[in-house]
Design brief:
Length: 302
């Protein structure tokens, strides 16, 4: 890849870094592993299970974002609590990657049958790596801007809330609450500092029982990242049709996203293994970037 001018490189790096970081929490399959993206949703199904999630975007670009998540959730009904451990990995080519270890806890306030409120917190340790040498040359002796390879470890916190009443569920979360500075110049100048992006998410869904066998779930998923020099938010409208909670097929329309239409499908095997796959068709302005592909597999231990 040809190196870019310094100013353009810094802006480009900030955007790539933000997109790579947001890959940890932006999912088209949020139906099937909400605890990965909202700590209050940990243990929603009152089951102990393992989940893996893989996502790839824009593979035709030099610095295409890629992510892999792994999680284990355990519900402790006696104390109305759930705990979880997660590992998140994301990268943008050879330019940047992050490794995150997270531990979640959620508590359920029961009001009545099928009526509850959950609060959750997740403690994260984030290891990051950047290679600025891939973007631009730095003049010798100039320590005011980041250069070479840089890495480090920073802590942060995610918070979440989840409310369910009969067939309606609503949840919200904030990810990377404190926005730690991941990269700064040796002189400490803020103009070349890169903070971990903070994200706000909101999800609402309603389960409609069409018959004894068929269920339809309309949902919205709002995702608002604080990105480098950008103010961008996403809003996904989805419909998911399932048959006996075993086979499902759905579609998503995304507002202000490079992949406007997404289709997803899945199957549950022997009531324990859930396999989901989604394919996001790139918008006409982004056809040369490639699709948004995501796959999820979960296994119920109960």
């Amino acid at each position: 890849m040809k190196k870019l001018p310094l100013t353009l490189s810094l802006i480009f790096f900030g955007i790539v870094f933000s997109i790579s970081a947001q890959s940890d929490v932006y999912s088209r399959l949020f139906y099937y592993s909400p605890g990965m993206f909202n700590p209050a949703a940990t243990g929603l199904e009152s089951k102990n299970f393992i989940t893996t999630d893989f996502g790839s975007r824009w593979h035709k670009l030099d610095f295409s974002p890629l992510r892999f998540n792994f999680g284990y959730e355990r519900t402790i009904d006696k104390v109305n609590s759930s705990v979880a451990a997660y590992y998140y990995y994301s990268q943008s080519g050879n330019l940047t990657n992050t490794n995150t270890l997270g531990i979640s806890y959620s508590y359920k306030f029961r009001f009545a049958e099928n009526h509850f409120l959950k609060l959750g917190i997740q403690l994260n340790v984030i290891r990051y790596f950047f290679d600025f040498s891939l973007l631009y040359p730095v003049p010798d002796g100039d320590h005011s801007i980041p250069n070479g390879q840089q890495s480090g470890i920073k802590p942060d916190i995610n918070l979440g809330i989840w409310y369910s009443w009969k067939d309606l569920s609503v949840g919200a979360s904030v990810v990377n609450l404190f926005r730690p500075v991941m990269i700064s110049s040796e002189t400490g100048h803020d103009e070349y500092a890169f903070k971990l992006p903070r994200f706000f998410t909101f999800v609402a869904k309603y389960e409609i029982q069409l018959s004894k066998s068929f269920e339809l779930v309309p949902a919205i998923y709002y995702f608002s990242p604080e990105r480098f020099d950008l103010d961008v938010d996403y809003l996904d409208y989805s419909l998911n049709l399932s048959y006996k909670k075993t086979i499902n097929l759905g579609t998503i329309y995304s507002h202000r996203n490079a992949s406007v239409w997404t289709v997803f499908a899945g199957v549950k095997i022997i009531k324990k293994i859930n396999i989901q796959f989604s394919y996001g068709f790139p918008d006409k302005d982004y056809k040369t970037w490639g699709p948004f592909i995501e796959a999820l597999v979960s296994y119920s231990i109960n």
